[in-house]
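Sample 3 of the quickstart, ligand guanosine-5'-diphosphate:
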Amino acid sequence: MRVIGTAGHVDHGKSTLIAALTGVHPDRLKEEQEREMTIELGFGWLTLPDGEEIGIVDVPGHRDFIGNMLAGIGGIDAVVLVIAADEGVMPQTKEHLAILDLLQIPSGMVALTKTDLVPDAEWLDLVEAEIRESLAGTVLANAPFVRVSAKLGTGLENLLETLSKLLKEKPERLDLGRPRLPIDRAFSISGFGTVVTGTLADGNLSLGDEVLVLPSTQKGRVRGLQTHKKKEEISIPGSRTAVNISGISLEDIRRGEVVIKPGQYETTRRLDAQFRLLDDISQPIKHDTEVKLFVGASETIATLRLLGAEILNPGEEAWIQLELRDPIITVRGDRYILRRPSPAETLGGGVIIDHQPKGRHKRFDERIIEKLTSLAEGSPADVLYEASLANGADTLSNLIRDARLEEADAQEAVEELFVENKIFNLNESGALHLTDALHHESAPESRTATHPKADAMQFSLKDFVIATTHWDALKERTLNMVRAYHEKFPLRRGVPREELKSRLKIKTKLFNAMIENLLKTEDVDDAYRSVQLPGHRITFGSTEQAKISGLMRQFDANPFAPPTIKSSTEEVGEEIFNALLALEEFVQLSPEVVFRKSDYEKAIDMLREYLAKNGKITVADARDLYGTSRRYVLALLEHLDSQRVTMRDGDFRKLR
Ligand code: GDP
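Result:
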């Protein structure tokens, strides 16, 4: 699912354009309607000409509300930079463009609005040429232009088609199995409680998920999910998501916090980062400057420490460490923006290199600078881990190939990921005594582990591994499904394996490996090709019990000529009858015939006794022995043949 965002100077026609495209005016607040200006984030969605539905975040263009702009712009896939043809590039156009560039927004276009206000096309050509110059060297350098007038309704189709083309070229957001929803709005709806919205990243959220809001550490559960005002059972990465959370009240959370699943993220108050100071800054930056940090939807005061310089001049880059006043959630690779608190000004930004640095770095330490440089490039373990997150469950050899690692680096990287419990070996149910086959068998000297904690660790290239976050999420999803199935079908032993697999929508190889692991760890039990939670028992209520007693009376009356499967099913209902079968109350002899287990055992005893005396038996004799009809006797004898109790010899049966 994709989300686009708007950007641009105040009054250049962003909200009007979105209203023209969606039919919904995104300016929600009354104050805005009165002032005709977006100050909060506005949200909407639309359907592109190719049928794809996309979310829209309309950000405020006014300089006083740049914090709101930043809260919304982070997770978008493409931006529409709105520039009014009669005014051209204005201060907030420039500031927004700088921000889009620092955030490395994946793609974008320029909408030249209010074209009805300029005299002719030549004028438009001039304005466009001027804009092109401003875009040079930024992420939007090659962005397409579309001329529109919301007033006349011209150019709108072209705009949608251009967007559609832009998005088609970009891959969908990855599911990394570790969802996070930076909260850009929080409100409460009477009768439902707390609702938060944001652009979901890095994983799915499902109904019933236990969630944690960080940094306030409020615990809750997903009670409802919506995307584009439609109810969903599951919300996917990249979608505008509204989550109704039970167990958390509105007063306890605020914008900028992040909804996650417990155990998947930790807060931080110190960051190492790569930083670029913008070109047109009013003055250089000194060490220990107080700044405002924007990452995700969060905003906090921080102290900027220059690790390798005394002073930073406009346009320069540096390694920095940020000491935050308040804890936030962010991870390596996230993009951030720094602003000067006063006078308010966007300073620059960059990418987070380490979100949990070991401590406060000494300045001008070459080793630290070197370490940050190599971290920025990504260690082999990082790269391998990224491959694992992207590929889902895969063999080690595929991951190493996709990560393009050298053999020696791969060995170390795999060990590191196992030791740090970042990947899980599905072949060995997590136990780390695998055979080290990364190196050829002919080179036994290279079998020693290189990681200090990894002496006993061995693995095979063929091992099927999965990122631990994916594994935990899959396990949780599976167990929730089985639990829900038990609730819905209390009279069934468990979810048939095939059904579970198709509902999980995972490949057979992963499914089988997963079930094997869950059986080993006793998270589930095996029941008749079904999967059940340990300790799940079928229990009947009193009405069900009464129906069963009625049926059993008929079996009592004629144990060897009992009701057929069809009539039993009609009598008690399919659900109960299947439950009795699952509980092994019955033995099925043929597609039509069942005996109660005790009657079946008695039938075998009677037959053994008869055969001990007479040696052999015909169908007719057996019919007399049981006082039943030919149909039941045939079903019984054929079943006993197949069970290798008896064998056929012409018209006779003998003991095998
Ligand atoms: P925003 O601050 O960028 O969201 O700008 P708005 O959408 O609120 O528009 C600002 C003003 O420009 C409003 O008075 C709109 O009616 C007007 N406007 C927007 N689009 C057009 C257009 O295409 N042509 C003309 N003539 N006016 C427009």
